[in-house]
Amino acid sequence: MPPERLAEGLVEPDDCSFGLDLSRAGTSLDRPSGAGLLDNHRPFLASIRLREPDRIMRSLGLPHDPDPKLRSAMASVIANAIQAAMIGAHIWVFYSRDRTHYVGRGKYFPSWYRLARMTAAVDGLEDLGLIDHRRTRPSPGAKYRSSFRASERLRQALGAIDLGLLEFVQEECVLLRDADGDFATYRNSRSICALRKDVMAHNAFLCGHEITVEHPEVENQANGLLKVGGGLINPARTG
């Protein structure tokens, strides 16, 4: 939906579609349940994408798939594996193979974030030897979730791994929650679209500025991450 139409007030309810990709697989919407949260586990985030997906996937020898949504899922799985590898080879990314996790996601998640495509993406990349995969039995009450990490083959194929390979796309910027703190289902309205336009304008302004951090406990890593105390922070992540 062009911003001009928003400004002209021509937007009808549900006439502008945005998808939030702050997915944290293995939880109920965005609320951590504790499942899958081992010290060396990080949640899958669909907001993590490859900056040049076609070029990178060709360089990895991935066959072209006619389903663009499956390719998007595979690209995001690779991107999540890359970000985890930047933290350390011991880091795994957990995700859900349970159907109930993907029910009712609606506008808060990208259209490719569905069980069939997520499992097909992970299984396909495992078959190609690009990720190491630990599969668990799908269940909403499982203690631990299935997880993956970049394989040695993927790390060698990419060579230097840094933030330049990734981009972070938070497609929805208006987050509404219910009384329990969960994301709430809502219909677009003129006021919500106006609010979205205002937030996007502020984000565009901030993207034009570089913010640096100078502190004795902050160390800039060669791969673009910031080491703060004993942890690593990704300054490029927006969600």
User: Which percent range describes the beta-strand content?
Assistant: 5-15%
Give the C-alpha Rg.
19 Å
- Oligomeric state: single chain
Helix content: 25-40%
Task: Compute the number of helices.
Answer: 6
| Spatial strand sequence of the major β-sheet | 1-3-5-4
Mean pLDDT: 76
- Alpha-beta content class: alpha+beta
Strand count: 9
Order of helices and strands: HEEHHEHEEHEHEEE
Attribute tags:
239 residues, alpha+beta, 3-stranded antiparallel β-sheet, 9 strands, 6 helices, 4-stranded mixed β-sheet, globular, 30% helix
Write the layout of secondary structure elements.
Layout: H1 3-8, E1 41-43, E2 48-50, H2 53-59, H3 68-87, E3 92-95, H4 115-127, E4 131-134, E5 146-150, H5 152-158, E6 166-168, H6 190-207, E7 218-220, E8 226-228, E9 231-233
Parallel strand pairs: 1-3
Antiparallel strand pairs: 2-6, 3-5, 4-5, 7-8, 8-9
Helix pairs in contact: 3-4
